[in-house]
Amino acid sequence: MVEKDEADDLAKTLIDVEKQVQLMANPFVTNWSPIVKNSQCLSLDDLDSEKYTFSASLPDACQELYNNVLSCKLDCDSDPYPLSDAIEYNINTEGALLWTTLKVKNMSLMTQHRFT
């Protein structure tokens, strides 16, 4: 005959044993597209394809960022400093953040190829 304490131990489930188990509301069943499309502008073809990740499917933090930049005009004709010019300047200017980042990545890639 099994003692009461032993029976209680046997009856424990994963939830009883693991105090902090986190389950994803939308587990990955496919590779989600890196291209986000506004959920309000979907077509049936969009729903059938895997070309887009829909804005309503984004995690909360990503939805906040998406909604912040959704109607932002980053390259407006009236803007004296368009974003595309700023990025190009930053890439081509020695010592700038993007120039430095690209140089470090390039050196890292060269080192990897040399030793592989």
Describe this structure in words.
- This protein has 116 residues and is mostly helical.
- The protein has a domain at 76-116.
- Helix content is 48%, strand content 3%.
- The chain has six helices and two strands.
- It has a two-stranded parallel sheet with strand order 1-2.
- Helix 3 links the parallel strand 1 (36-37) and strand 2 (53-54).
- Helix 5 packs across helix 6.
- The protein is extended.
- The model has no long low-confidence stretch (mean pLDDT 78).
Overall shape: extended
* Side-by-side strand order of the widest sheet: 1-2
Largest sheet: 2 strands, parallel
Binned strand content: under 5%
Helix vs. strand class: mainly alpha
Query: Helical region count?
Result: 6
Using only C-alpha atoms, the radius of gyration works out to 25 Å
How many extended strands? 2
Unreliable residue runs: none
Instruction: Report the order of strands and helices.
Output: HHEHEHHH
Mean pLDDT: 78
Strand and helix map with partners:
Blueprint: H1 4-11, H2 14-17, E1 36-37, H3 44-48, E2 53-54, H4 60-69, H5 83-92, H6 97-115
Parallel strand pairs: 1-2
Brief summary:
It contains six helices and two strands. By secondary structure, the protein is mainly α.
Q: What brief labels describe this structure?
A:
116 residues; two-stranded parallel sheet; mainly alpha; 2 strands; 6 helices; single chain
